[in-house]
Amino acid sequence: MSDWMNSLPEAARLYLEGRRLDEVECIIADLPGIARGKAVPASKFARQSQFHLPNSIFFQTITGGWTPEADTEDFTEPDMILKPDMSTATAAPWTGDWTLQVIHDAFDREGTPIPFAPRNVLKRVVELYHAKGWHPVVAPEMEFYLVARNIDPGKPIEAMMGRTGRPAAARQAYSMSAVDEYGPVIDDIYDFAEAQGFEIDGITQEGGAGQVEINLRHGDPVKLADEVFYFKRMIREAALRHDCFATFMAKPIEGEPGSAMHIHHSVIDRETGRNLFAGPQGGETDAFFNFLGGLQKHLPAAISILAPYVNSYRRYVKDYAAPINLEWGRDNRTTGLRIPIAEPQARRIENRVAGMDCNPYLGIAASLACGYLGLIDEDWPTKQFRGSTYDGEGDFPQVLGDALETFEEAEALHATLGREFCRVYAAVKRNEYEEFLQIISPWEREHLLLNV
């Protein structure tokens, strides 16, 4: 076994034990979170220390369109230098041969990190915490739907067929028999996760028809974002094995709840290992309230990252287990910011705003950036909300265009995430939004064609 294979993470080494590695997929996440890269024979990967892709992959819209506004005046579509992070090497257990995936980091020719590569954006934010002697800890929750194969975009998405021969039922949250309906898909998800060395903290049935939630154990933000990135690909592959689709759309089915990526946050003192949100007697600290205040103050500007598509805004509706504002409360799932029941050393703040359709690197980076600004500026939150926020009015943007306007004016957020990233991100999202506005929907044809 070559030196680089000896340095593989344990799960990857166990996966290959007694087998010959055939191929390595060299990948990087683009702005939507799609895996881009190259598949190379294992023998070639062993000889290379880097490979190249044009940095224009970050200027594409979700439809594959080009965003000329993201270019600089002297743009020549240069190559990036992509270097492997071997700590991310993991199996691709759904492939027909023995294949590993390795996430790469993007640099320019001078060795400077490409500022609009999503993993670099998250690393930048984490480094801001480290410079203060802190380390952020996150725990993402992933919600998604298992649905019937949909090969005609003109038709509504429908629930998948369960093992009983009936479509998956709605309003069966936490039902074990509902999970059993699509047990073979769940079994493959568990098997794939084990092969990749990922620890699942739990799988539950959510409130929608065929809606599932997977919780991951808390840990380092970059590592957890890597896992969500890998999980989304793995879950899709598990579903395809059983003649259904897995979708991470924020609102795939009319009348059903949307899918979120709830993000739990805490901040650790790097020297002492103490949770900054818990005081010596277990009480809530100023840092706890400052982080909350930062989320309330800056999340409105970050909504276009946490809700990156026109469909994302269909999720923010009353009584569908999604927030409609940024109130905070203890053990209150109607608020945008929830404080779960926990022992003081496990005290954390849950951001319930992010949709599962967001790029995990960017969603976690944006949420951490808002909390960081609150810590630095000593922001203070509003009074705790008691009762149901659904009794009041929402204050989230209703469309992507409005969210982008707020984002484009957010100087503090730009300085934290990186101005060049924010410029490129806004240009790509503007392009997507304008492309969407050119589409005439079935609702318009049905109700306006002959009636106006």
TrEMBL record:
Any single GO BP term: glutamine biosynthetic process
Boundaries of every GS catalytic domain copy: 118-452
Domain of life from the UniProt record: Bacteria
CC cofactor: Mg(2+)
InterPro entries linked to this entry: Gln_synt_N_sf (IPR036651), Gln_synth/guanido_kin_cat_dom (IPR014746), Gln_synth_cat_dom (IPR008146), Gln_synth_gly_rich_site (IPR027303)
Keyword annotations of the record: Ligase, Magnesium
Gene Ontology MF terms in the entry: glutamine synthetase activity
Pfam families on file: Gln-synt_C (PF00120)
Similarity-based family: Belongs to the glutamine synthetase family.
Name of the molecule in the record: Glutamine synthetase
